[in-house]
């Protein structure tokens, strides 16, 4: 029987920190609830509730939703047919389905270091061996990746190439081509986790990796552009993998909520999601600027922080041998929270790192939070 | 890398049979859509859509829903605290979570023969070895179970003890006590899958196995009493298993749709679900009677069929060496469908068996379907 001593996820434990109302939290990765399009979603829900959407439904997903998502991906530069899509219960489920269908205990997964911790946990739960590949401000290092491929023979490369969690970094176009050359050379499958790319606050879009190679599985979600409570995500996968993924999805939950799928399909069709995303971007841009600007004034000499073009996160490295977990404990005494970066490492963690999310606070709240943080630093 | 030749589930392939409108289908396991409480659910959905229910939510489930479900289980004779419950994306997910958290490749699972085929598939996907235990009209045979426990040392016993899928049989109270004695003697955990027990058309309720032993994990669902499209189920588990189950659930999909959970919580609180279940039972009782009565007139001498006290299924064994798959092919030519029983066997299948669901047809449609079936038989 599998050990029951599995530790609970750091994300989960940290969510507890943010529940005290007096805490200004940079710890979450939540969209701003005041920006949810409540009226648009209410109208969609009202139209979507029918006898059909209350009944069992196909495992692959609602036909209308697959069409809407395929059209949106295609319009954004990733040509997609509805039958290349599997609708999932959030993109977290897509991640688990890919892991279950493609990996087995002992399989090797390569990841950029640092990376999304729920992905790391997913790989560990599957008994996979995770190998860290270093990166820099331009994203994962293709030369280091080639060495890892040579040495460790990974079966999967997991990346958040655009506005990465936790660093906010984007893999640039040149590096994308190099990463794909390495992948193509060895037949390495790539899992492109893409929850944030619509949240761009400056610069031009970089094409999805999946647009250039059939080795790429692409994960998307309604959680960041719409609402996460509905748990609607999607997986765009090569045709030959789809049967195994569908069987795995069927065992997982038969299908994603037919009602929620219909709500999202209706919303994508009837609402102006582009206008909504522009509103999100305008607000989040201000909040990013507030965080990045305020940090500049309080971070000690020698600290490094990212200034992301989009997404939800700023990544900070404090100078010297500071442990950010100790900083967090003291920060919580001053009612401010963030996530120590160590949890995002597959290999030896850099304990002087911190992840700060800027999406849920108004600029003045962000500035007050950073002021409190400055007292600790 | 895991083989991608996993066969698609028989349930799935068979659902395709039922889509031609001229087919009278006994093949499904669907609730009758015309009985969905559309108005009640619409009112609940309207109240449930808020900024809170559009946001990320706790993995364990909505606090209000856990309270409502705990109260309902307690009122039905299974004393339950909210913190003993994990809300899942349908009870199919609960099944997969239990399998993932408790079993590993090579683990042995004992099942009543025949049993729910999606459970069998779940166990096979996990690499478990499934051992069949025979039963009769009173349910699984405790003596045969004791022999299997002695010989194969299973880690889990999976049962649908009330109105079983596919047979419609119920494990009687005396046998329940015997099964639990066998389990307690060897520390065998029992997974009690209980989707149907509220759909009782005659006789008195039999207490849930989970009411008598801490070795029992209990699965329930809103799918059969409410609506399956919402994908809301629950797992009642012993305290010491909960941490591992929650971590597994988090990796699976972070949490079940917060919106759907709020819809169901509101519905359980504000609607008269007992009255709705009485309406379901009145209609399904008529449909069961129509099927059982009509079959009596067309089944050949020597055929055996169940006459279930509740649930959704009648189980037939044809006399002699008939293959029900051949019967199905001929039945489809006459626009009538059912599920050949062979898929429900973990061991050597009895190919002369058939599962017929009576929930989705009006009595006159059921009688016409059985008449067509009679032409084939």
UniProtKB/TrEMBL annotation, chains A, B:
Residues 42-373 form the Aminotransferase class I/classII large domain. It comes from the Bacteria. SUPFAM superfamilies: PLP-dependent transferases. GO terms for biological process: alpha-amino acid metabolic process. Gene3D superfamilies: Aspartate Aminotransferase, domain 1 (3.90.1150.10), Type I PLP-dependent aspartate aminotransferase-like (Major domain) (3.40.640.10). Its cofactor is pyridoxal 5'-phosphate. GO terms for molecular function: pyridoxal phosphate binding; transaminase activity. Keywords: Aminotransferase, Pyridoxal phosphate, Transferase. The keyword Transferase applies. Belongs to the class-I pyridoxal-phosphate-dependent aminotransferase family. Homodimer. This is Putative transcriptional regulator, GntR family. The lineage of its organism: Bacteria, Bacillati, Actinomycetota, Actinomycetes, Pseudonocardiales.
């Amino acid at each position: 029987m599998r050990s029951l001593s599995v530790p609970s996820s750091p994300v989960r434990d940290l969510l507890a920190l943010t529940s005290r109302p007096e805490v200004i939290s940079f710890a979450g990765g939540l969209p701003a609830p005041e920006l949810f399009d409540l009226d648009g979603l209410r109208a969609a829900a009202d139209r979507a509730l029918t006898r059909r959407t209350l009944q069992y439904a196909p495992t692959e997903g609602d036909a209308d939703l697959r069409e809407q998502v395929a059209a949106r991906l295609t319009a954004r530069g990733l040509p997609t047919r509805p039958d290349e899509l599997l609708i999932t219960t959030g993109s977290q489920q897509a991640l688990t389905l890919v892991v279950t269908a493609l990996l087995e205990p002992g399989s090797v997964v390569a990841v950029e270091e640092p990376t999304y911790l729920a992905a790391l946990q997913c790989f560990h739960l599957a008994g996979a061996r995770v190998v860290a590949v270093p990166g820099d401000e331009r994203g994962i290092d293709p030369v280091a990746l080639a060495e890892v491929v040579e040495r460790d023979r990974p079966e999967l490369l997991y990346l958040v190439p655009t506005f990465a969690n936790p660093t906010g970094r984007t893999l640039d176009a040149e590096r994308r081509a190099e990463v794909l050359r390495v992948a193509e050379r060895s037949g390495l499958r790539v899992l492109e986790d893409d929850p944030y790319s619509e949240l761009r606050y400056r610069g031009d879009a970089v094409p999805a990796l999946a647009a250039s190679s059939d080795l790429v599985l692409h994960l998307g979600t309604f959680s960041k552009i719409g609402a996460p409570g509905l748990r609607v995500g999607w997986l765009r996968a090569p045709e030959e993998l789809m049967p195994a993924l569908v069987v795995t999805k069927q065992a997982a939950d038969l299908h994603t909520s037919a009602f929620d799928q219909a709500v999202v399909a209706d919303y994508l069709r009837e609402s102006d999601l582009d206008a909504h995303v522009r509103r999100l971007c305008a607000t989040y841009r201000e909040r990013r600027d507030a965080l990045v600007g305020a940090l500049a004034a309080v971070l000690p000499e020698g600290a490094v922080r990212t200034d992301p073009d989009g997404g939800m996160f700023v990544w900070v490295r404090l100078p010297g041998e500071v442990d950010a977990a100790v900083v967090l404990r003291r920060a919580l005494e001053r009612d401010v929270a963030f996530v120590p970066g160590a949890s995002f490492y597959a290999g030896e963690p850099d304990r002087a790192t911190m992840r700060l999310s800027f999406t849920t606070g108004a600029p003045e709240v962000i500035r007050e939070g950073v002021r409190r943080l400055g007292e600790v630093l």
